[in-house]
Fold:
Amino acid sequence: MFSKGSRYRKLPETVTTDARGRTLKSVPVRPLPVTSGLFLHTVVAGDRLDNLAQSYYQQPAKWWRICDANPEFMSPLALLGQEPLVTVRIPLTWHTSLPLWDKLLAELSA
Structure:
């Protein structure tokens, strides 16, 4: 039902019957993961979630992590300046060594 890389793939399926008697399979709402840390980013004109994910995670398909870290926004578009916004939270990931993180850590240590 979901692709190999989907964040919903490992969730159990639920079977329900609708008002017309049809049996429907679905997946419950995915609980938000616990984040170990946050990085603040000031949104500027032209920012896109896939570009931010590419910048911070080196994986544009991980844009949903930014949405997970900002549950108070009902829509991903709200994160991108469609509504008044100053900063968004981007969860930190330490299990990988990316040039961007190495650079940020070096700057913070200096």
Notes: The first strand starts at residue 14 and ends at 17. The mean pLDDT is 77. The CA atoms of residues 54 and 60 lie 4 Å apart.
